[in-house]
């Protein structure tokens, strides 16, 4: 619970992408080390207090990092990225997918721990690292941008962040230029089609 309060202080200052990146790194390291110490505990039961305590420490560390990053940011991100006309349905589908994933994982975890033991933690740790390039390539930054500006960001025909950011910059420049010229512009409207406000009144 306390770690989610940390997200309140950092989610806008650091941004969504940085939170997801470093969250994945911290979670991945914590899970892999928890698995490693769990293995050492199994091989050296006479050192249960040392290795068991270390394994528990990294499990708690994973939980703390998760609460500050991957638990909180994915709830905020869909509310910013879906267009207004489908935002409610988009968020509903997001919660639906989250619930399916949680339920599936709850059922799968006991089977994995029973079959492969502490290697389960290593697999989930590796998955965290695999998520980093996905966030880098496909998750544009939404922090400190208005909901109206999200239209500029996602009007790119490319799914890659660098193309979306370029489209965002270009559309912002067009909108600002049109504003200075006294024209009304809607997101996505080509510069040649914007309407002069004074002409529209006449």
What is the CATH H-level superfamily of the largest domain? Answer: MFS general substrate transporter like domains
Beta fraction: under 5%
Order of helices and strands: HHHHHHHHEEH
Helix share bin: over 70%
Identify the CATH architecture of the largest domain.
Answer: Up-down Bundle
> Sheet bearing the most strands, described?
2 strands, antiparallel
Low-confidence stretches: 194-202
Explain how this protein is built.
By secondary structure, this protein is mainly alpha-helical. Residues 194-202 have low confidence and may be disordered. It has a two-stranded antiparallel ribbon with strand order 1-2. It folds into two domains: 2-138, Growth Hormone, Chain: A; 149-188, no CATH class. The termini are far apart. The chain is 73% helix and 2% strand.
């Amino acid at each position: 619970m306390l770690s989610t309060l940390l997200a309140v202080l950092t989610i806008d200052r650091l941004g969504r992408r940085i939170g997801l990146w470093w969250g994945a790194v911290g979670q991945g390291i914590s899970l892999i080390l928890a698995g490693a110490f769990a293995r050492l505990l199994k091989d050296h039961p006479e050192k249960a207090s040392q290795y068991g305590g270390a394994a528990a420490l990294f499990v708690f560390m994973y939980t703390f990092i998760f609460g500050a990053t991957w638990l909180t940011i994915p709830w905020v991100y869909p509310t910013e990225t879906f267009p207004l006309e489908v935002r409610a349905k988009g968020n509903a589908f997001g919660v639906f997918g989250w619930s399916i994933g949680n339920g599936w994982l709850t059922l799968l975890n006991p089977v994995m721990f029973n079959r492969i033991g502490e290697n389960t933690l290593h697999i989930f740790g590796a998955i965290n690292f695999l998520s980093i390039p996905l966030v880098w390539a496909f998750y544009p930054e939404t922090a400190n941008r208005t909901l109206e500006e999200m239209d500029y960001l996602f009007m790119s025909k490319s799914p890659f962040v660098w193309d979306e950011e370029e489209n965002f910059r270009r559309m912002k420049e067009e909108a600002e230029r049109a504003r200075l010229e006294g024209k009304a512009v809607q997101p996505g409207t080509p510069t040649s089609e914007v309407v002069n406000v004074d002409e529209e009144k006449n």
